[in-house]
Predict the 3D structure of the following.
Amino acid sequence: MAFSQFEFFSDSLRRVVSFNILLPNDSPLEFIKDNENYKRGVKTLFLLHGYSGNNRDWILESKINEFAIKYNIAVIFPNGDNSFYLDGKGMGSKYGTYVGEELVNYTRRVFGLSNKKEDTYIGGFSMGGFGAIHTALKYNETFSKAFALSSALIINEIKNKDENFSTPIADYYYYESTFGNLNELENSENNPEELIRRLKSENKLIPSIFMACGKEDFLIEPNRAFHKFLVDNDVNVYYQEDDGNHNWEFWNKYLEPSIQWLIN
């Protein structure tokens, strides 16, 4: 398994950015002998971190290195800062474009990864779960599937709020700068529900979604509500609730099942 950190100049973010990548291009023969996943080409997974995290979180806290070898998947870890992987206001803040378009094209070109939709996935936890869902929907011609663990599906909690609004995580000004005008958020492309409504109205294919959330997680109700929205709109979704909270114990429990769902 090859692992590296790369830096390049991003037009979307207007600065030099770094990302990590795992490539199963030197897996020992004993690891891949009789492994059905090596009878096909390499798949690609973009794996997104959560709020206050960075592009090394998955590498340090999970078994993604082991699973990349086992399932013959190249894994790319972008740094999304605290952006929710959305295009923010002003120059140098197009995180959605960076992950969903620029980084995809760059890594395909540089590492020779598949340019096929059916070989390209995205996943994440918490803020990264939101980002995985939103990015897959916005770039539905690029990603065939997305998995989202303990997703921060907070649109209905922050829409239409005024300057006095705050949460233990952030204040109104953060939410406004990240999501745009909160009075217009419900019908904005920053709302995954609105993206689904638009895709359905245009008769476009909607990527399949895997969701899992712990029953003790503070985000369980928004996840239940979004799951219901997907079911009501005939979106292909696999949803799982389990004992657990908003932590690595839960995310590690569902990382391998998520990958298995992606490739099958």
Notes: The chain has a mean pLDDT of 97. The domain at 2-263 is CATH 3.40.50.1820 (Rossmann fold). The radius of gyration is 18 Å. Residues 95-111 form the longest helix (17 residues).
